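Narrative of activities, Objective 1.

The group set out to show that a structural description can be obtained from nothing but a protein's sequence at a throughput compatible with the screening campaign. Below is one input-output pair from the validation batch, recorded exactly as produced.
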Amino acid sequence: MDGVPAIPHPRKHPEGARPTTTSKHPAPAPASRPTPDAATAATPATPAATATPASPVESRFAVLGPVRAWRGAEPLPSGTPQQRALLAVLLLRDGRTATAPELIDAIWGEDPPQQALATIRTYASRLRKVVAPGLLVTESGGYAIRLRSAATLDLGVARSLAADADAARAAGDRTLARTLLARALDLWEGEPLAGVPGPHAETERTRLAEWRLQLLETRLDLDLEVGHHAEAVSELTALTAAHPLRERLRELLMLALYRSGRQAEALAVYADTRRLLADELGVDPRPELAALQQRILNADADLARAEDPAPAAATVHVRPAQLPATVPDFTGRSSFVDELGAILSGGAQDQVMAVSALAGIGGVGKTTLAVHVAHAARPHFPDGQLYVDLQGTEARPAEPEAVLGSFLRALGTPDTAIPDSPAERAALYRSTLDGRRVLVLLDNARDAAQVRPLLPGTAGCAALVTSRVRMAGLAGAHLVDLDVMSPEEALQLFTRIVGEERVRAERQAALDVVGACGFLPLAIRIAASRLAARRTWTVSVLAAKLGDERRRLDELQAGDLAVKATFELGYGQLEPAQQRAFRLLGLADGPDISLSAAAAVLDLPEYDTEDLLEALVDCSLLESAAPGRYRFHDLVRLYARACAERDEQPPSGREAALDRLLDFYLATASGVYALERPGDRLPAHLSDTHYPGLVFAESRAALDWLYAEADPLLACVRQAAVRGGETLVLRRAVDLLWAAKDLAESGANSKQYESAAAALRDAAQAAKDPYAEGRARTTLTNVHLVAGRFAEADDEARQATVLAREAGDPLPSCWAPNDRGIIALYQGRHADGERYLLEAIDGFRADANNVGEASALCNLSRIHVELGRLSSAIDLAQQGIAIYDRMGLTLRLANGRYALGIALTQAGRLGEALAQLTEALSLFHENRQPLWEGVTHFRLAVAHLAARRPTLAASHAEQAIALRGIGGEWRRATVLTVLGKALRRLGQTDRARACWRDAETVFRQLGSTELAEVQALLASEIAA
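Output recorded for this entry:
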């Protein structure tokens, strides 16, 4: 009776406010309970009882595991097994008296001892001495335990939580229902009434176990309803193995697999179930299971969506409302408002899906008009409105894949349910919108190709698109060419912003102002806002400032130059320090910039930088994206760069600003790397920096910075590649990429990282710099290796080795052979792999790089495993671990334990292997390494399979797949191979074949050596 279990108190409800819904899965009544009381047992505790928390000095009891008792926090002795049996009988009677004959029959059944009655009295006397006074009472020759609160018995708490979960589900709150059921299930601590003898305990054990399974099925059903199907697959696989004849679990598994995009496996589950039921019971699957199979065969679109809530509640959809605020002084454009409004309202009436595309020069008011029209149309789209800025004028427009992910999240799809490929995301997006009436505003699009995947495609929905180019390639779209305002509209807009009184007094000057602005809405708005903010200015003063002919001509030009004069007005009013900040900040690529990075660009302290940036925000020349982060409007950024080219003297000041930004990122990323990997020699081999970076005291803050700065950091690298020319710039950019290598393995930034690495490689090659090119190719090697593209990885590593020798660079000279050793391992070229890794070890030792040496030793261990040298494999991994341990390298220690776990698995020392791999998994999770989490789950699956624990093997394999971070198609296929083996041992042969067929397709496409093994597995099943 060691320890006090955490028995949560039920939620308190106001008097009379507690739901009275009876639980759909009540705790089973004891067998000895009379029929009239059975319904009482099925109902949660009364409001008064439930709302009363257990007093610190009250006795508390647990039956959902070993029978235990506490008084306050002190464990109470429960006596012999038979005494615990007496306690269990009384606790499970809900306060009703048990007569002596009933107790004797419950504890001993048909074979009681001669002194059974005296023994009962002795047990009762002992219990009375340890429990709270008055708790155990004697009535009519029998005994009863009268609990003062349902919260003092874990079963009572579980009943209450289950009832609350049913009430929450009936009210449409599936998330709360799922949480409450999870809390109820957490109260179980193994087998109910564990170790308690007697027929009564055996009966109650069976019933409580069945009730738990019902609760678990309900919670899994809710998992699928709220979109957690990917996570549910692992648990359902284990449960169907433990309860093979339970058809509801099989049905849930089929649905979870189907919603995870694994249709073949879902159908294979049905085939396995049908065969099992026929062999074991001589029956067919129940109709619900057969109907589900047919719906999967028909690719029923409704199966891809979460189920509706309980019939008593209305269907609950996430209703996004993402439209930006409309401007209060919207002016004119009445014909366009009417035209677009009519099209949108018609599209909402279940006609064909309406698409309207607005085109025009920058600053003409496309976004303002689209937002205004969208707000007016909101009543026609009750299921929500989506909005995105597609950044079409940026060097790197928004990727449709990323936008689809954002839209799916806004529509209620959990991250784990969002597919990886753009095509699958687009299909799920359209399926999610089917049956809803949603308006989608796609702002600032680059071209029709960017827009097409983002269109709803179903009747009842509509899309508004704005772009600087005419969307002639967007089939079926209603095209609107938006021109400048009429003079009357322009003057009206100017008047609304500046004020009627000032314009009435100087009407001609106001007409001169809007005329000088070329009647362009953005130019008018900026000019009028500046005037409105300066009460001492007259309209004539503003008109005079705009009277410069050069500015006015700029206003009248087409394209981006059309707003240049308006921006010049704001720029000209800035203080010299503010102008410099505006110019230099515009030079940096990236979606936004942090305050600390901006300080580096300006070469100023952060507090001075913040004052300047906030002044620019006040002038509407800069936007505050979030606290401490700033961004330019795309047109303003272009104008700022034009100012820098014109005004920044000497011109070298522009390059110096970008150099400081590069130095800042390199110095900070190098510090993050060193903090994560103490003792690693990489920072010592990186380029010197002349501007300092940030310093972090602890690892979590350092990693938070790295991932928050990923986009602007990688943009800085790409910009350095474009700048090219100067050798030092390329080398520092390559070193920054190497120091930020965690971004390549995070999954979220892998594509941007690869793009930056490829750009640097090409730039270094063009500059004929073997030093920078060798390092760039080494970073690309890692990218390809993580993605499972081994041929490309080996080619980059081979060239990196040659270039490193030419440049005399020790860093790629060590790491490239190390990577080639890993590649050879995966390609089955074990002799080559051993040669490469021995070369890497020599190089690391020559460089005194203990961390690199340990990495190569662990990799060599895996080669020896494949060569059958298990003793040396274990020794090599232990040598690597010893180095990591000595240097305090937590993350790298996980890599060492991973390698040792593989070696121990092959040596048959499975208990030790599982311990090492489990520890590695925990360390990888703590250090946010999803790739390594996935591969460690895979290795745990292999170890459990070797230990003949196929249920656990299947569970870990499913978790590796669910993480979506296992590193490319090759690794996914290797996991599917092992999952198939586990499923075959569980008797799920059809699903096993489905896994192997999927893996066979991948291996064939990649030309992998593993193809032969999978084909042999499939052939063996056919032969069987």
